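Subject: for your reference before the review

Hello V.,

The reviewers asked for a structural picture of the protein, and I figured it would be easier to keep everything in one thread rather than splitting it across files. Below is the amino acid sequence we used in the manuscript, unchanged from the supplementary table.
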Amino acid sequence: MRQRRTMAEFRRILMVLFLILMIHVTVTGQFSFFTVRDGDDVTLPCGNVRDDQEKCDTTNWFFNRLRHTVELVTSGQIDKTKISKSKSHRLSVTENCSLVIKKVTNEDVGQYNCRRQEQYFAVELSVVALTERRDNNQVTLTCSVWTYDACRHTIKWFLKGKVVEKENNDLKTSQSDCSANLTFKDSHFIYSTKKYDLLQCDVTHSITKEVKQFIFRPQSSGEKTGEEATTATTEKTPTSATITATEYQEVFPVWVRVSIVSVALAALITTVVVVNIWKRIKG
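And here is what came back from the structure prediction:
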């Protein structure tokens, strides 16, 4: 009879440990993809803030690029000790714990991970640049995307709402890694009449299928020329596409996966210890 009671207690212990493991391993995850123009401002969300959560004291933001992770926000505050002064001045945290980046550059491209209590949110930021270069009587417009990892975008040039085909004799297109060129002579009516608003660069995300449209605008006389020059777009408020953890596991933060594995390992070790104790009691 005593042995049966001991066995029943042991089973209850195992059930409690299993439930604890399931509670800790079940982590909510949300992934957003933002594609914005160089020089624009962007607000990266940290999920949905509860009504009873008035402050961001439990919110941390991490920036991951080139296998290097930096903590940008600690307990809701910009951590100026870990990032440069020039970048910290461009960062701020909103009331709902979102991360604001002013005047985005290619240095801001990467994965941003927000951790708030037991919730994790990942945001992958890509930046679009539109440049103009003139060589003799040739004009080349380039639409390129700086990405966190491998290129996840397809890029196409449009004229008057129609895609520019390779067979076009007046407008030549060429593709390279995450960029598309459009070349034409300076005698073309687009250049001679400055009808740049007829040209549009469409950037499509390969995972979310979201299409972002960027209108090319000519440079003013005070702007730089050549490959350093960038142009404005019609994008005023950057939007994003969001997927869940089960839809796309690749972007799930490594440190989140490590924490889950650590919790699971701790539960496993606890189970082994309980089994050994039970065997000693039984013996």
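For the response letter, the relevant points are probably these. Confidence is low (pLDDT under 50) at residues 18-27, 220-239, 243-264. The radius of gyration is 26 Å.

Happy to draft the paragraph if you're swamped.

O.
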